[in-house]
Write a structure and sequence with these properties.
307 residues; 75% helix
Length: 307
């Protein structure tokens, strides 16, 4: 009996130990699980915090981006309005510039017309025709271009050459249209038309009229110094004066008037050969002969019809 009790005790003790060991194991497991759960909660908490921070950053980024987009769109609208305003201002400026250019062109055309008309008036008093000044203008441009003047300068001379005899408006009709030879005193009065024309034009500040003054003053000067009014010689005579002199003489001799006959072309050509280096600039005489067909064509184009 004693042995059986002892055996039972031992078994009971063993069972209690096993139960105690089980309890310990369960406790350990529960502790580990609690620890794991806690760590998980900590991890979850960290992850949630990180997610929240990321979401907050995304929200802030979105707000910032939307603000930037709005600012850019607003700036675009401002720039668009500014561009439209600037375009309107530019268009208005261009329209004003066009008006100024058109007005300037109109003034220039008016000046040309006035000069041509004044030149024709001066010539009409000495029974010349309006086509005389047109032909002289065309001849002058041919000579100028071939002499080496620029297109602009040649065109300028063409425009002003009709004024070469404008001073004749101050010469009495009795002398201007006298059919016979002039007396010495009458010739002096006639020759004064060069100074008269210059005095009429010299005070102008306009390039066109200042050039016309030179032509009026010097188109009767001769290459050898025998001309008037100042007896200039060679290149002392302005090229405008030298050119107009040759153009004027060619037309005067090659067209008829009620008080004189037309010279034959060969007679005119011979005079030019003889007067090269005397009356006329030799270089201009050479240019004339090199382009004589053009001169003859212009004379036909602007032919006079005298009743």
């Amino acid at each position: 009996m004693i042995e059986n009790r002892s055996g039972n005790d031992r078994r009971n003790t063993s069972d209690r130990r096993k139960n105690n060991d089980g309890d310990i194991t369960d406790n350990k497991r529960e502790g580990v699980e609690r620890r794991i759960n806690h760590e998980r909660r900590d991890n979850d908490s960290s992850e949630n915090k990180l997610v929240l921070e990321i979401e907050a950053l995304q929200l802030e980024f979105t707000k910032t981006t939307e603000k930037l987009i709005k600012d850019v769109k607003r700036q675009d609208k401002i720039m668009a309005r500014s561009d439209k305003r600037q375009q309107r201002e530019y268009d208005e400026l261009q329209n004003k510039l066009k008006e100024v250019k058109d007005l300037s062109k109109e003034i220039e055309e008016t000046q040309k017309e006035v000069i041509l008309t004044m030149g024709a008036i001066g010539e009409s008093r000495s029974r010349e025709t309006g086509n005389h000044v047109k032909r002289v203008a065309e001849y002058s441009k041919i000579l100028a271009l071939n002499y080496g003047l620029s297109e602009e300068e040649a065109e300028l001379l063409k425009q002003v050459s009709p004024m070469h005899d404008i001073g004749k408006v101050g010469i009495p009709d009795s002398i201007l249209n006298k059919p016979g030879r002039l007396t010495f005193d009458e010739k002096l009065i006639m020759n004064s038309h060069a100074d008269l024309g210059y005095d009429m034009l010299k005070y102008s500040k306009r390039k066109l009229l200042k050039t016309a003054a030179i032509v009026a003053h010097e188109h009767h000067e001769n290459w050898d110094g025998s001309g008037y009014p100042r007896g200039l010689k060679g290149e002392e005579i302005h090229i405008y004066g030298r050119i107009t002199a040759l153009a004027d003489v060619f037309d005067a001799l090659g067209t008829g008037r009620v008080y004189k006959d037309v010279w034959e072309d060969e007679k005119i050509f011979q005079l030019f050969r003889d007067e090269s280096g005397k009356h006329f600039d030799p270089k201009l005489v050479d240019i004339f002969f090199e382009n004589v067909e053009e001169f003859l064509a212009i004379r036909v184009k602007f032919v006079d019809f005298i009743k």
